[in-house]
Design a protein that fits this description.
alpha/beta, Rossmann fold, six-stranded mixed β-sheet, 13 strands, globular
Length: 333
């Protein structure tokens, strides 16, 4: 059974359509990253999966259950990590894990989970004394204390340092190995590339691309299921303000500076063209960095397909409303 199924979901906020026919799925033991600019409908979709918003159209099923009508049966099986809030300011990490463990019939062991999220050395600090990254790691622990079959993680690496991000990636990998279905919303495209089995990119409430990272960067996985016809090209980084006219004459191709220090050669990435590029830079004593011949990055796909944050933002400040503290626990949500 597919763990999460969203089919043609529509959610409106008054006259504003925040989610407009969105479909996605997550299977057991699969990590799916939900990407999109601010206001794209990511958080509204997550809140619908959690049962906090009622769909205006389409269907949502988690473990075969309706998040609203089957809310009480579903919540013990789902771990939810929110971006912020939901924890008493004076509570200590181990106390919080033990409190949340009491809500479940078969919880994880709090002391072991505290070590797993890398907060054993902060066991005596209160929530208000934790750094932003440490709060994120504790929030992840609280989402996982009930041994969920489905984990919904909203920006799990936001504000987390390099070591913390690596620890969170390892935990997500462990969840996959244990057969947990994981849906992650994130702005960290590198994290999505490294951790996700599939990526769903949404913009203005609609899916604009979906597939594995390899499929997306190779030009597949757009909303209509076809290759997008993106022309062959070479991208590279070098010092700003190169003589793109002179370089273009050498390569017999148009060269443009897309942003300071970021260049595109509008030509097929043949070995001779790449060689000529490197020779020209060497002759001018210029450093070459980040050469990409014919292959996009996930960031390139994302930027090309989405509306910049703040341009046509559909749902206001992050598409997030206030939550009650009880929603953190899975107990009486």
């Amino acid at each position: 059974m597919t763990a999460i199924v969203v089919d043609e979901l529509v959610v409106r906020h008054g006259e504003l359509t925040a989610v407009d026919g969105l479909s996605l799925s997550v299977g057991p033991g699969e990590v799916v990253a939900l990407l999109g600019p601010n206001g794209a409908g990511k958080t509204t979709t997550v809140e619908t999966l959690e049962g906090f918003r009622r769909p205006d159209g389409g269907t949502v099923r988690v473990l075969g259950l309706d998040p609203i009508t089957d809310h009480r049966s579903l919540t013990p099986q789902v771990g939810v990590m929110l971006q912020q809030g939901g924890v008493y300011p004076g509570i200590r990490p181990l106390e919080a894990l033990r409190l949340f463990a009491s809500y479940y019939s078969r919880p994880d062991e709090p002391d072991a989970l505290l070590e797993r999220i890398g907060l054993t050395h902060r066991r005596h600090a209160s929530w208000r004394q934790l750094s932003g990254g440490e709060r994120q790691r504790l929030s992840l622990g609280l989402a996982l204390i009930g041994r969920p079959r489905v984990a919904v993680l909203d920006e799990p690496t936001a504000g987390v340092d390099v070591g913390g991000r690596q620890a969170i990636r390892e935990i997500v990998a462990d969840l996959r190995a244990d057969g947990v279905a994981v849906l992650v919303t994130t702005h960290d495209l590198v994290d999505a590339e490294r951790s996700a089995d599939r990526v769903v990119i949404v913009d203005r409430g609609r899916v604009v691309a979906a597939g594995t990272v390899a499929e997306l960067v190779d030009g597949r996985g757009t909303a209509d299921g076809r290759r997008d016809g993106r022309p062959a090209e070479i991208r590279f980084a070098a010092p700003p303000a190169l003589d793109v006219v002179g370089l273009g004459a050498t390569l017999d191709a148009v060269v443009t500076e897309e942003s300071p220090g970021e260049y595109r050669v509008h030509a097929a990435p043949s070995p001779s063209t790449v060689a000529a590029l490197t020779v020209w830079l060497a002759d001018h004593d210029l450093a070459l960095d980040d050469l990409r011949a014919g292959r996009q990055r996930l960031e390139d796909v994302f930027l090309r397909l989405t509306t910049p944050a703040g341009d046509g933002d559909r749902t206001g400040a992050g598409d997030r409303g206030p939550r009650l503290e009880a929603t953190r626990s899975g107990h009486d949500r």
